[in-house]
Amino acid sequence: MTVDEIISAAMKEGRVYLTELESKQILKEAGIATTEIRLAKSKEEAVSLSREIGFPVVLKIVSPDVLHKSDAGGVKLSLDSEQEVGKAFDDIISSIKEHEPAAKIEGVSVQNMARPGTEVIIGMSKDPQFGPVLMFGLGGILVEILKDVSFRIVPLTRRDAREMIKELKGYPILEGYRGQEPANIEVLEDLLLTVSDFVEGRPEIMEMDINPIFAYSDGAVAVDARVILESE
Amino acid sequence: MKDIVEKLDRAFNPRSVAVIGDKREMDYMWLRSLTNFQGRVYSVQIDEQELPGIEALGVKNYYSLLDIPEPIDYAIVAVPRAVAPKIVHDCIEKKVGAAMLFTSGFAETNTEEGIRLQNIIAEMVREADFNLIGPNCMGIFNPKIGLRHAVDQYYGDGGPVGFISQSGTHATFFSLVGALNGVKVSKSVSYGNAVVLDSADYLEYLAEDEDTKIIGMYIEGVKKGRQFFTSLREAAKRKPVVIWKGGMTDEGTRATASHTASLAESPLIWDAMIKQCGAIRVDSLDEMIDTVKALLYLKPTTGVGVGLAAVSGGQSVVITDAFAKEGLEVPLLSEKSYQEFATFFSIIGSSYRNPLDISSNFRSMDNIMRCIDILNEDENVDSVVLELAISFMARIFRYTPVFFDSLVEVLAQYKERSNKPFVIILSSGPAERQALEARAKLVEKGIPSFPDFERGARALKKVVEYYRFQSL
Prior knowledge:
The structure holds 2 protein chains of 2 kinds.
Chain A: H1 3-12, H2 20-30, E1 37-40, H3 43-53, E2 57-62, E3 75-79, H4 82-99, E4 107-112, E5 118-127, E6 131-138, H5 141-144, E7 149-153, H6 158-166, H7 171-174, H8 185-200, E8 205-215, E9 220-222, E10 225-229
Antiparallel strand pairs in A: 1-4, 2-3, 2-4, 5-6, 5-8, 6-7, 8-9, 8-10
Chain B: H1 3-12, E1 16-20, H2 29-33, E2 40-44, H3 51-56, E3 60-62, E4 74-77, H4 84-93, E5 98-101, H5 112-128, E6 132-133, E7 139-141, E8 161-165, H6 168-180, E9 185-190, H7 199-208, E10 214-219, H8 225-238, E11 241-245, H9 250-260, H10 267-277, E12 280-282, H11 285-297, E13 306-310, H12 313-325, H13 335-344, E14 356-357, H14 365-377, E15 383-387, H15 390-396, H16 401-417, E16 422-425, H17 432-444, E17 449-450, H18 453-471
Parallel strand pairs in B: 1-2, 1-4, 2-3, 4-5, 5-6, 8-9, 8-10, 10-11, 11-12, 13-14, 13-15, 15-16, 16-17
Antiparallel strand pairs in B: 7-9
Helix pairs in contact in B: 4-5, 6-11, 7-8, 8-10, 11-18, 12-18, 13-14, 14-16
């Protein structure tokens, strides 16, 4: 499905929250690498898709009504075998039915388990005065507790992208701290520029949260993503 | 000519001004501030009791703006708010170039009546595509043509600094405090509630203005954010733009709402935007003036190394802390410099590693200048900073104007021949009066001074950052 199709389908259903599946499809269309993600409507489908994708895999609930997937027991990581996948599928469905009985369940997404990297996040929100603004930060505790994030107004230039990465206090972590794999800064700059270009041309999108992105020395991949549309 | 220049030219360079509603109660402040205006001034007032006072000022009064027999470029409107819509209507009918509404009591009061009146005016003005400055403001200051908004503002010679201020007080203070510091205005505007013309419009105008080399802004909020972002990005490419944003705290944004009816804005986004556009952020009037002064008078540099000369051991320590805290470096000097110091520098009670403590050498003007020259020649030094210890001069060997005058003379000569920034810190101690005299003498010679180490360090840092951004 194209970005237009995804957005208009959601709008028709009166939804502003896109599912992770839809959000990642949108990112892919925008030219942003994401983990491989496929929709399984049954346990059997989940098992065969995980064989295709290759173990280990991740299973996550796909429902427009479940916003916090982990809290509702809708996420299972590091599944190494068909048995584990089958059990995880059943567990997710029963957990969602228990926690969010009214939620419409579209199925379960099967995703490859991304190789760990340095976690970064990119967010887009709209400022009432200045319009779309991008946020960049390091994932986990650095963003949550220390609020080590930077902002720029869309559209970004390459220089803006470079500076918003470098002005993070945690920047040395991206350079490869204590023998850790360094992140490829140019790839992250490209990623910010791609997001900037994309949201500039998509006024229907109100908010976007790509969190986390795993950054590697040779690339970066969006592991989770959430897109919220304007309600009009 | 760009559209915006054409649009606002009559407002900033009027040849005829009408003052509507000036009165004794305000001590005829508007008419009196126009005493030296180079064009024609008219008054509009219907209150018979005010007419003798207006006549005494030698200004011709009319009962209606529409009765004035010639075109009016700029109207100063100081009437009660209830009649403001009618007067604005007259201005539109008269095809006035721009009207400045001094009148307040509109949306900033957050009352039904205030908002209603502001909306009536806004609608009328938008429909007519009329240039309304304000309301709730002081309007334009153009010293070159004697267009002022306060009787104590200067006229005749203007300066190179454009100032755009949402507050009338800050516009007035910037012009007056700036002048004491050698910072003079080319054109400034106080624009209040900005119901139609907003900061971005004035910014675009001053970016085009040839008399304006540097732009300062005091902003509480913007209405057209995207336009502001684009205009700032463009303007900052052409000349330095220094921004003082009021309301950078939650409590402060509450105050901006009742002052100029500005909406709460995120300090983080403002900070990012200023940086992104290559503009310079400051947080007070003093910092605004310091920064503009530094941009005007300091030679450009992108280097962070400072050579520091202070006039006592204690001062040499804290001057170093002040500059290092701003992220500037206080490097060791070259071997060549140390060899030269060794030939004359009295080290008893002094030292010359960098920072220099030149107290023992301070009585000899030659020695002061030798120290400065060595710092200037040193390859590790990008900027030279000299503490002129006024209280030291006053106490130890008496502050004599003659000595100081000759010192200023040689410092001015040094400043001419050096291509490195030269910063003077006028630390007064208890000798405040003498320090102000000294500042005035330095200003006359175009030498910038700062009243303490911290302010000097911060201003220098802003200049270095600015040129670094420009050089990338």
